[in-house]
């Protein structure tokens, strides 16, 4: 506690140019990530697939994959400029204190005096801020779904479904965000300088609650979960779970195809009761043994305690964030630099704190990607030891082709951005070699593309 107090005193220096420093951070990060994107774009201009994939991918598929990668890179560049301009305008022109002041006027004018405290003000401020940013970013989101993804055959959503999902998401954010944010602010207000410890306990509680409630109350709002039908796949997955002593409670199929051709397979639940969810698109486009191989990789993460380790790291990081926030929460020089001279709202301090923390986030992102890639290799090795080497390799190749995923990557770009090894690296680690193409190119044209996303394969 004494160390945090001394650090807080050292950083609260009147006249310190926090705004200029944070803007410099943002520009430096944008330039650095742009440099990495340029390196990757050169890879996307290559005309021949990596040697590891020459026997698996025909020229037409590789050309389409490269075209898709370049299209995403170009879109990312434009949307990146768009977002960067938004951030700089918001900071440079003091839009945060202006919006805070405006919502304060609304608060006094339209609500009774008993509801004019900081918590209510913060809720109205964040609602207005979220509404503004959502509207501003609608063109980008629309283009991504209905132009870019549509062009390459990935989008399965309709405008009506897209809007419905957007409205559901906003309503859900308000329904869950209001009590959680209110509790967050109340804890900071009432627990003094040790608030970060209580926030940490609150954060763990929220995560455990979320793990329990998400599949029951939230997921059904967007997708339908159905029990996996009896058959070879169910038998194979249950046998795998039994072999590994995985506490499988239920097997579900999710209707992911109603929105996208992308695929996923994941598990969730408490330590003593787990559920496995398989996307219908993955089942439709893979052989039974390939789906089981995918799940052998996923359960490898569980068996090797990867999920537990990542959860533990996340808790440490959360504690670190909250403890460091206690250093900045009363930093008047930070507030003053961003136009807050009379009021010092907790949520504004939290937002500005995260802006100041951006450089360390870049380092943490890099280190976590290094660890994640290590875990992916270990999960692949786990699947190999179970006897799924060939099936896993075939599944990786097939999904790569169906998805038109980038088949090679610049090492620097991959180190910073990728949480998973690229396909040639994984096939090399699997010891894969084949003289025949895994997927018939003609069959690919008749299939909808798929990819493992989220806690990816």
Helix content: 55-70%
Radius of gyration: 24 Å
Overall pLDDT confidence: 89
The succession of helices and strands, N to C, reads HHHHHHHEHEEEHHHHHHHHHH
State the secondary-structure class: mainly alpha
Number of strands: 4
Poorly predicted runs of 5 or more residues: 441-456
Q: Profile the largest sheet.
A: 4 strands, mixed
Annotate the secondary structure layout.
Elements: H1 2-11, H2 18-44, H3 59-92, H4 95-110, H5 118-151, H6 159-190, H7 195-218, E1 225-227, H8 232-244, E2 248-254, E3 265-270, E4 273-279, H9 280-285, H10 288-303, H11 306-328, H12 332-337, H13 346-356, H14 358-385, H15 389-403, H16 411-417, H17 423-430, H18 441-445
Parallel strand pairs: 2-4
Antiparallel strand pairs: 1-2, 3-4
Report what the structure shows.
The chain has about 450 residues and is mainly α. It contains 18 helices and four strands. It has a four-stranded mixed beta sheet with strand order 1-2-4-3, with helices on both faces. A hairpin with a 2-residue loop joins β3 and β4. The radius of gyration is 24 Å and the shape is globular. The chain starts with a helix and ends in a 12-residue tail after the last helix. Residues about 440-455 have low confidence and may be disordered.
């Amino acid at each position: 506690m004494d160390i945090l107090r001394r650090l807080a005193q050292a950083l609260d220096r009147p006249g310190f140019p926090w705004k200029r420093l944070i803007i410099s951070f943002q520009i430096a990060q944008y330039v650095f990530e742009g440099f990495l994107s340029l390196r990757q774009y050169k890879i996307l201009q290559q005309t021949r697939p990596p040697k590891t994939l020459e026997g698996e991918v025909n020229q037409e598929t590789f050309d389409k994959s490269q075209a898709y990668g370049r299209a995403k890179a170009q879109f990312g560049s434009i949307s990146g400029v768009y977002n960067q301009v938004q951030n700089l305008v918001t900071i440079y022109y003091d839009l945060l204190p202006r919006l805070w002041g405006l919502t304060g006027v609304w608060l006094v004018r339209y609500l009774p005096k008993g509801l004019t405290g900081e918590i209510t003000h913060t809720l109205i401020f964040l609602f207005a801020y979220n509404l503004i940013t959502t509207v501003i970013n609608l063109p980008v989101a629309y283009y991504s779904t209905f132009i870019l993804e549509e062009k390459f055959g990935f989008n399965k959503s309709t405008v009506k479904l897209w809007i419905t999902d957007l409205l559901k998401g906003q309503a859900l954010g308000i329904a869950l965000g209001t009590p959680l944010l209110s509790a967050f602010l109340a804890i900071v207000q009432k627990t003094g300088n040790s608030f970060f410890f209580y926030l940490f306990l609150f954060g763990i509680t929220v995560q455990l609650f979320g793990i329990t409630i998400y599949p029951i109350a939230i997921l059904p709002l967007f997708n339908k979960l159905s029990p996996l039908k009896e058959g070879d796949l169910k038998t194979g997955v249950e046998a795998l779970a039994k072999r590994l002593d995985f506490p499988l409670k239920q097997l579900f199929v999710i209707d992911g195809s109603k929105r996208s051709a992308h695929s996923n397979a994941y598990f969730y639940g408490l330590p003593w009761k787990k559920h496995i969810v398989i996307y219908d698109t993955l089942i439709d486009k893979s052989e039974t043994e390939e789906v089981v191989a995918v799940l052998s990789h996923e359960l490898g993460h569980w068996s090797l305690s990867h999920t537990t380790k990542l959860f533990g790291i996340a808790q440490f990081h959360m504690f670190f964030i909250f403890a460091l926030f206690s250093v900045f929460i009363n930093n008047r020089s930070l507030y003053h630099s961003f136009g807050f001279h009379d009021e010092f709202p907790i949520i504004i301090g939290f937002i500005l704190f995260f802006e100041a923390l951006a450089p360390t986030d870049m380092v943490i992102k890099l280190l976590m990607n290094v660890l994640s890639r290590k875990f992916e290799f270990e999960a692949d090795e786990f699947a190999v030891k179970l006897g799924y080497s060939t099936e896993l390799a075939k599944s990786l190749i097939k999904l790569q082709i169906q998805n038109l995923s980038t088949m090679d990557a610049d090492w620097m770009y991959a180190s910073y951005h990728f949480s998973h090894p690229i396909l040639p690296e994984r096939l090399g680690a699997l010891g894969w070699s084949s003289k025949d193409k895994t997927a018939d190119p003609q069959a690919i044209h008749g299939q909808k593309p798929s990819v493992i996303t989220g806690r990816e394969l």
